[in-house]
Amino acid sequence: MRPMFLASLVFVSATAACIANGDGDTDRGAQEVTCPTSISAWSAGTAYRAGAIVAYRSAIYRCIQGHTAIDSWTPEAAASLWERVACSSTSAPPPPPAPGCGDAGVSTPADTGTGGSSDTGTPPTPPPPPPSSAKTELAPYFYSWGWGNTSYPFTSLVDMKSKSGLTSATIAFVLADGTCKATRDIQDHAADVKAFVAGGGRLKASFGGANGTYLESACGDSDSLAKAVSDFVSETGITDLDFDVEQAPSMTADVNKKRAAALAKVQKEKGVRVAFTLPCAPRDKWDTPGGLSAAGLDVVAAAVNAGIDISHVNLMTMDYGGYYSSGKAMGDLAISAATDTVTQLRKLLPSLSESAAWAKIGITPMIGQNDVSSEIFTLADAKTVAAFAKSKGVGLLAFWAINRDQPGSGSLGLYSQAQTKTFAFTEAFRGAF
Q1: Which of 153, 157, 196, 308 is the most exposed place for a label (fewest CB within 10 A)?
Q2: In terms of pLDDT, which residue wins out, 32 or 186?
């Protein structure tokens, strides 16, 4: 997951394949052009020449004036720099598939600061995984850079539990430290981790996100990757692992195969739970089926083929863009994406019953103001999603992020901008319990 306000990679949803090949009516009126054999996602910081073709959200754009892109000059926002087009060529493959469910609104250390002491101690022994019949788990994201920072409603996991009542959290993110080893934010706060677990808490560790180098990119082969993940588990005691896979270079067939082989080995040796947080899309205004992108399905398929028991497929239900969200409630869009993903999972895993498929689904919105200015995930949306999760037996509810679950009108990294009391979204989501 990543901050749109610090944007970098942007992908195109499955609907864009129709736009690219000219076989749909999702881009009526756009000028048809001949597209290259591969279309790169628009990226801030890239120098574009006039005539360059890029993918952004659910559309294809052509550069009409050479420039170096910055965050605020997105193709849909800078009409003097970009024009929307449709690919007339049928030989070009569709552009990179995208997260219709968007990119999680993440703050960064630059936005929020860091602080606090570095605790050390013996890693805790994690509790056993919950049985398959367990109720929906609520495990919102906890900033790995948030320890000790008084800008948030709490300064540690134990403090969070005491003030919010939450007993589960997803710590984000674990990345490569410049070598084939995991970053040490969690290890450096082992005493807090141990105390949280000793008090009945459950923790997930999320690897990846939108920014930084993934372990699967830093490690040369599956054995070295397996060792890096295994070492992390040994050092932290956390065996509930999530892999947030959204960077295009980490969604190739070779990387998917390497990741899957490594995680299969670690799961066999250490009994870890393995989940994936992935891009997805709700249905559009023409009722085109949504769900996981083709690239996301490939990540899951590689894991299935390697024999991994996947605990959850967690969906980033946020930052859709006006093409999807205009006039629609964010809660309804999240439900749409999850419903179509269940259909996809049952095709990929034919032995799954419908209830078992729902138990493998995770839903993760960005609470309050999303990075897309027109999109606000309200407290009413939270109650809608929670009620739906309870009715369907959804396995996991999370949100970005518990650190933001407080009133305020400043940085999106600090405030949801859509509540009047702290932990209001946490309370709204408790309807699933």
Answers
A1: 153
A2: 186
* 190-198 vs 222-236: helix crossing angle, rounded to 10: 70
Three-state DSSP at 126 gives: coil
Q: Using alpha carbons, select from 102, 128, 147 the residue that is nearest to residue 3.
A: 102
pLDDT, tens digit, 9 for 90 and up, residues 45-96: 787 777 888 888 878 888 876 667 776 678 877 776 778 888 875 443 433 3
| Strands 376-377 vs 53-56: parallel, antiparallel or unpaired | unpaired
Measuring CA to CA, which residue among 207, 203, 290, 283 is closest to residue 239? Answer: 203
Dihedrals φ, ψ of 266, to 5°? -65, -40
Q: Which CATH superfamily is domain 109-432 in?
A: Glycosidases (3.20.20.80)
Q: How many CB atoms lie within 10 A of CB 408?
A: 15
Residue with tokens 């990075």: 371
DSSP 93: P
Single out the residue of 53, 59, 50, 51 nearest to residue 29, CA to CA.
59
Do the beta carbons of residue 248 and residue 208 sit within 8 Å?
no
Bridge partners (DSSP) listed for residue 240: 273
pTM of the model: 0.73
Looking at the domain 4-87, which fold is it? Seminal Fluid Protein  PDC-109 (Domain B) (2.10.10)
* H-only helix segments in 108-221: 109-112, 157-164, 190-198, 215-218
User: How many angstroms separate the CA atoms of 207 and 245, rounded?
Assistant: 8
* Pairing relationship of beta strands 368-369 and 376-377 according to DSSP bridges: antiparallel
